[in-house]
Structure formats: C-alpha cells, structure tokens
Amino acid sequence: MYLLNCLWLAFAILLAGSVLCLVSKRHKVNGPLAMISMAAAGLLAVFVAVQVWLNGPVTAGIDSLSIAGFPAVPVFTVDRLSALFLGLIGILSMASVLYTQGYLPHYKSEDPRRYYPPFLLFVLCMMAVVTVADLFYFLFFWEFMTLTSYFLVVYQRDNKKNLEAGFLYFFMTHVTSAGLILVTILFSGWTGSLSFTAIPEIYRQRPPPTRPC
C-alpha cells in the first residue's frame, strides 16, 4: 500500500507543481519549479517501479473518490509491465524537463506558463494511464492526457505549421477517444463492470450476445 501512496504523492507533486508554475508571475522561476516537481515525482515513480519489480505487484483503490451507484472505482495497479512503463516515464520526463531549461529560453516571445503546467499534467496523466485499473478512469486520464499534450504541440503560436499539426493531432486523438468510449460502453453493458480485473472473469462467464446466422 505504501508504494501506491508514493505514486499518489507523485501525482500530487505534479499537480501542485503545475499550479505553482501557472500562478508564478516570474518567468525565470517556472523552469526551476517544474524541474524540482518533475525530479521529485520522477524519482518516486522510479522507486515504485523498482520495488514492484523486486517484490511483486500492488493494488489499491481510492474509496473516497468513488461515486455511489456508479460502477467505476478509482483503482490503481502496478505490476511488472506497468512498472516498466512507469519507470520509463519517470526517467524520460526528468530528462525532458532538464532539456527544456536550455531550450525554452530561445523562445523569448512565448510565456513558459503555457508550457510547464500542461507538461507536468501530461506526465501525471501518462503515469495514471499505465497504472489505473478501471476503464472509466483510464478514459478520463487518456482524454486529459491528449488535451494537455495538445497545448505542448501548439506552444509556438506564431508558427503556422505547429497550429496545423496541433489541429490534426487534436482531431486524430479524439477519433481514438471515440473508439475508447464505444468500447467502454460495450464492456460496461455486457459485464456491468468497468474494472480491468473483473471484466475478463465476467466476460468468460457471460459472453456477449451474438446474432443468429
């Protein structure tokens, strides 16, 4: 359980870091704030990943966020596969935010507050996508991940190609999201559950209806 508390702490650090970067009026502070937040969250993610690889998977839910009568419960599971992705996200995100310290200052006309908050939220959502064990919350974090990454794509507003690429990216990701929503509705209707662990068991016991030939 303490490992998932470390993961949730990483989420909280990224969320707090994005808020601090957004409200900070000093542009020179945004970079260090983002780097400190990402370093803390990234190291926690790597720690969780290593511990899961050494000691086995962990699962826990956040009952306080569950909705009465709603089949979705925010449950997070870290097994060795998700730990691999979690560790990679932590390491690569730390390297990425370190690179931006020298990269973003070249764009003097752009406000770093339009970059660092979406970046930290994007990393948070990536970590959540690979660890959440429920279709509804997977879809929630997936959608928020695509939204925040859109702002990263169009960071250079004076570049027309960036804006065009951002529009195409936004369109394609939402086509994908529509497919995920359809799958979520179908599985929920067939099984009455949105849990990644419960759906296969229920599906084997009660397969979906088929049309007669």
Q: Can you describe what's shown?
A:
This protein is mainly alpha-helical. The chain has one domain. The chain is 69% helix and 4% strand. The chain has seven helices and two strands. The chain has helices at 2-23, 27-55, 80-103, 116-129, 135-153, 160-191, 198-205; strands spanning 58-61, 75-78. A two-stranded antiparallel sheet has the order 1-2. Helix 1 (2-23) runs antiparallel to helix 2, helix 1 packs antiparallel against helix 4 (116-129) and helix 2 runs antiparallel to helix 3. The longest helix is centred in the C-terminal third of the chain and has 32 residues, at 160-191. The protein is globular and about 60 Å long. The model has no long low-confidence stretch (mean pLDDT 83). It is a multi-pass membrane protein. Pfam families: Proton_antipo_M.
Going across the major beta sheet, what is the strand order?
A: 1-2
Contiguous low-pLDDT stretches (5 residues minimum) are none
Average per-residue pLDDT, rounded, comes to 83
Rounded radius of gyration (Å): 19 Å
> What's the number of domains?
1
Q: CA-to-CA gap between the ends?
A: 50 Å
Helix content range of the residues, please?
Answer: 55-70%
Shape: globular
Largest sheet: 2 strands, antiparallel
Helix and strand run: HHEEHHHHH
Count of distinct strands = 2
- Count of alpha/pi helices: 7
From the structure provided, what is the oligomeric state, counting identical versus distinct chains?
Answer: single chain
Subcellular location: Cell membrane; Membrane
EC number: 1.-.-.-
Pfam family, one: Proton_antipo_M
Enzyme class: oxidoreductase
